[in-house]
Each structure stands twice: as C-alpha cells, then as structure tokens.
Amino acid sequence: GTAERRNEILKILCRRRHETVPRLAAEFGVSERTIRRDIEALSLTAPLYTQQDGMTAVSYTHLRAHETRS
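Above: the chain's sequence. Below: its structure in token form.
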C-alpha cells in the first residue's frame, strides 16, 4: 500500500542519499506523479530536498535548502 511504499522510498533515500523520480517510479512500478505525491508527503516529516525544476530528483539531507544558505 501507500504507507509501505513511502516507507521503502524513505529507506532507499536514506541509503542512496539521492535518486531521481523516474527511477523511483520504475522501481516501484507506479507513475512519476505518484512518486511526487509520496515525496511531497514524506518531505513534511523527513529531511528531503527536491530540485526546483519540477521535482525530477530528490535528496536525503540533514539540512533543508533554506538552512544551508549563509
């Protein structure tokens, strides 16, 4: 289900640190839109950083983008 997939996505991102939406979509056999929704939901509680160009890639980071600027 959705919760299990999101949990797996988070595990993958913790391990790999960086992944693209198309690759995650292929890996889980779902649409890129579904992955984007999952990442959107996960980013509310997890330290995820997405590229600003339509969210094609996502990184797991301990600092959100606005915290890394000096």
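The radius of gyration is 12 Å.
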